[in-house]
Structure formats: C-alpha cells, structure tokens
C-alpha cells in the first residue's frame, strides 16, 4: 500500500468512526467539535477531509441521518409528528415540516400515509414494462451512458436520477426507470450542475426496505455533470451497481414517490 493509499485509508476509518458516533447520538445536538473529537482531527481539518470524501459537511450529513431517523419513526411508531420533530432536535414544527418536505419530497404526514399505497404501485410497476432498451433520441443536450449490473442483481427496476445536490434528496430534476442494466439517456437537459445517482428496487424487497433504503444496490458518479452551451453533451458515462458502503450518502428522497411519479407519466403517455 502506497503512502497516499495509507493516508486515505486512515481518513476513511476516521470518517467511519465519526458516522458511527453520529448514529449513537442521533437524538442529541452535536457540534462540529463533538464529531471531530471522535476522529482525532481538528474540527477544521476534519470538516475539510469529510467534505472532500463525502461531498457534504459533517453537520449536513448529521442532519441527513436525523431526517432518515424521522422517516423511520414515522413508519414504525405512533408518535405524533410534533414528538418526532422534538426527538430529532428540531424546536419548530413548521421548520421541521418544511425541511422534511424539501429533502424527502413529501410532508411528514403524506410520507406516513403513503405507505399503504406502495404495494399497489409496485404491482403496477411489475405489470407495466419499463424500458428494457433505452430509445436513443437526438437532442441538443444529452447525458447518456451505460449502467452495469452485478451477480447479485435480480429482477427489479433501476431508478436513475439527475439530482441538483450531491446527496440524493428531494425530487430529481430528471428521472428514468429501467428494468435491467444497459444503456440510458437523458435528453433535453436544461443548463445546470447535476449529480447522477442510481438505485435498484428488486421484487424481493419489503415495503419497509424501500421506504427506508439502507442496503440496496446502487451506483453514482462522484463528480458533478455540468451542462451548458460550451458542454451540451456528456456521453459514455459508465456506472456500476454496487452494494452500499457505510460511508455512502444516505438516500433521503422517497423512492415510493419517484415510483408514483413515474407511473403517472407512464399512464399519461398511454
């Protein structure tokens, strides 16, 4: 192992310790100093290393874990939204609701009530054939490539989204569903900065696994994709589906919501 690889390994282990600490203290209000102390780095150095590897600051990542915990409490307990809001450290119900809606895609109450609709929507997804081979279209602005599977890939759907943030949260700017690995293409892309993410939903997953995605197969492109007049096309992107790691970013966006949106567009096109 080279010195550079050794340094990177040390940094990743420090980040894993910090993330583990965040999970243990998910109901508390932690400062950057608290989290950095576990990593044995100074707050400034730790924040810089953390953001370089994960793309977001430690405190933003911690807030993501808190919203993920809120999703879990909404589905697995009868706690009121007010109680959940206070449990994860928010003092204002209005602020919590606004932030949750922005980052998950649904309000807390809608997220909780939508659980019963998922099974029906999944059945529709299996019945409606998703694109086995993406139709290549001519367009001025294009993001295209190929996504490869693994031996652990089973029958299911692959959700591919172009997000405006490095963390997959909120509604992606563009969304595509595929029934198997292969070529994909987004056309008519507006100028902007995008982060390409993919996640797999297989038939053997329970509704709870889909609502609270933790160990699903996924793929991502680390560097942002920039589309503008000078660079209107980004092609030959290669994505490989892999098992999720502890240091991967939490998927906050409601996957059932993305499925529902896809179905509406599909049915509208029939």
TrEMBL record:
Alphabetical keyword list: DNA-binding, Transcription, Transcription regulation
Domain of life: Bacteria
Entry-linked PROSITE patterns: HTH_ARAC_FAMILY_2
InterPro entries: Homeodomain-like_sf, HTH_AraC
A molecular-function term among this protein's GO annotations: DNA-binding transcription factor activity
HTH araC/xylS-type domain location: 16-114
PANTHER family assigned to the protein according to its UniProt record, in alphabetical order: ARAC-FAMILY TRANSCRIPTIONAL REGULATOR, HTH-TYPE TRANSCRIPTIONAL ACTIVATOR RHAS
Name listed for the protein in its UniProt record: Helix-turn-helix domain-containing protein
Organism: Shimazuella alba
């Amino acid at each position: 192992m080279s010195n550079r690889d050794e340094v990177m390994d040390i940094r990743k282990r420090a980040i894993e310790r910090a993330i583990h600490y965040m999970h243990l203290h998910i109901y508390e209000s932690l400062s950057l100093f608290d989290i950095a102390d576990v990593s044995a780095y100074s707050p400034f150095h730790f924040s810089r290393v953390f953001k370089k590897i994960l793309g977001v600051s430690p405190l933003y990542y911690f807030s993501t874990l808190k919203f993920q915990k809120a999703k879990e409490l909404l589905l697995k307990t009868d706690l009121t939204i007010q109680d959940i809001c206070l449990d994860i450290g928010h003092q204002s119900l209005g602020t919590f609701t606004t932030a949750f809606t922005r980052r998950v895609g649904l309000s807390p109450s809608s997220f909780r009530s939508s659980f019963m609709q998922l099974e029906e929507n999944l059945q529709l997804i299996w019945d409606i054939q998703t694109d086995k081979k993406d139709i290549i279209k001519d367009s001025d602005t294009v993001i295209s490539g190929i996504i490869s599977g693994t031996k652990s890939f089973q029958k299911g759907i692959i959700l591919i989204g172009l997000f405006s943030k490095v963390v997959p949260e909120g509604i992606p700017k563009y969304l595509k569903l595929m029934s198997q690995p292969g070529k994909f293409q987004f056309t008519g892309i507006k100028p902007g900065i995008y982060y390409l993410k993919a996640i797999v939903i297989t038939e053997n997953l329970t509704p709870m696994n889909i609502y609270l995605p933790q160990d699903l197969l996924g793929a991502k492109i680390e560097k942002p994709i920039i589309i503008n007049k000078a660079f209107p096309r980004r092609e030959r992107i290669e994505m490989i589906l892999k098992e999720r790691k502890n240091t991967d970013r939490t998927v906050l966006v409601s996957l059932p919501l993305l499925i529902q949106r896809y179905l509406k567009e599909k049915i509208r096109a029939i």
